[in-house]
Structure formats: structure tokens, C-alpha cells
Amino acid sequence: MLTDRAQRTLDTIDGQTLDEMRALRDETERFMQRYKFGMDEVITKLSILREEFSQAHSYNPIEHISSRLKSLDSVIDKMRRKGIDPSFEAIRATITDIAGVRVTCSFVSDAYRIAELLTAQEDVLVLRVKDYIAEPKANGYQSLHLIVEVPVFLSTGAHPVAVEVQIRTIAMDFWASLEHKIYYKFDRMVPDELLDQLTDAARTAAELDARMERLHREVHGQPPPARAALSSEV
């Protein structure tokens, strides 16, 4: 239900303007829908890898897959912060994390393996890689960030869509979740003492990852993993 004021404002708008508003609404919905489909495409690829590993290797390197699509309000806020022109083309070229997929693995080697298998697929184009596992952020944050582009096939043809993929271990994910809650509680003004404790906890999480992977490989008689470098940018 519209308020009286909103209804009066709407009544003053001519028919042509209303048609233009409807057209803009429809175009915006189609624009966001493509990102949703791109996200679904990446999830399908990861789910296939997950099932194939479980059946062929009796081992599942993927513990959990989650996803999120930015709200239109979040996209607009990011446009304003970055000073982006209010056009779909500018958004498409500049904001690459509208669609996001997060993959949680047991071990660090699994994170790199999944990244290599995903990016080796012919219809996946790697736009950017940020390896915060090899080079953690100053606060201790670790994760492997990929920006990939996948084709979404619609009735109007193929549309390339950028999707952000974050791959991390269970320990990294637990730490990142805690950090997010702390930053939210303190409105990003976190006391130095808590920041120091967070950084120390990140080191502990990294040590746990290394110890658990060594134990896993000893139990299964596996050699240390040979980590292939991922290209940082195309």
C-alpha cells in the first residue's frame, strides 16, 4: 500500500515516464538475474567436482558450498563509493563481486586443487586471482579469491558473467566469520587489543591447518603436496 504522499507523487507522473520507469525496472531485474544464473553455473560446476571426487576417489575435498547475491542497494552503495557511472556497462566492468560463491575445504591443498580444477575448465575465464593463503592480509586473513567469468546462455544468446569464488579451509572460514562479527559489533572501530588477539588467532588457525594436513598425509601415506601457482591476472 502506498502512502497518500507517494500516491499523489505517482499521480503527477505522466504515462511516458511511467513506461520508462517500468522499462528500467525490468532491465535491472534482467541484469541482476544474469548474475544469479552465473552464480548457479559455478555452483553446478563445483557440485559436479564434489560428487565426482566422492565416487571416483572415495574422498571429498569440498566440505561446504555457499553463495550470495548482492542486493541492489549494496550494488548502488558500492557504485557511490567508487564513483562509478550509473550505467549497467560501468557496473559490469567495475564491480566483480555481485555474485559470490564460497567453498570450504578440509585442507589447504584441497583449496588449491579445487581452484586448479575449476579454472582449467574451457568455459571458465580467470579474470583475477588474489592468494591470501600464500600472502595473508596484515590482520591474518587467509583465503583464495578468484574472479572468474562464465557464460550464461539465455534466449538472447550467451552473456559472460563475473563471479567471485572464495576458497578456504574450515579453520580459515571460522576465523573469518568471527572477525566479521567483531567488526560489525564495533562498527569497524575494533580496539587494538582485540585486533592483536584476532591476528594471533589467525596464526593459530594456520598452524592447525598445517598440523592437520600433515597428520592426514601421514595416515594415508601421501607425500607433501606440490602446489601449482595460479596466474594472478589475465
From TrEMBL:
<keyword id="KW-0808">Transferase</keyword>
<dbReference type="InterPro" id="IPR052366">
    <property type="entry name" value="GTP_Pyrophosphokinase"/>
</dbReference>
<keyword id="KW-0418">Kinase</keyword>
<dbReference type="Pfam" id="PF04607">
    <property type="entry name" value="RelA_SpoT"/>
</dbReference>
<protein>
    <submittedName>
        <fullName>GTP pyrophosphokinase family protein</fullName>
    </submittedName>
</protein>
<dbReference type="InterPro" id="IPR043519">
    <property type="entry name" value="NT_sf"/>
</dbReference>
<dbReference type="GO" id="GO:0015969">
    <property type="term" value="P:guanosine tetraphosphate metabolic process"/>
</dbReference>
<feature type="domain" description="RelA/SpoT">
    <location>
        <begin position="67"/>
        <end position="190"/>
    </location>
</feature>
<dbReference type="InterPro" id="IPR007685">
    <property type="entry name" value="RelA_SpoT"/>
</dbReference>
<dbReference type="GO" id="GO:0016301">
    <property type="term" value="F:kinase activity"/>
</dbReference>
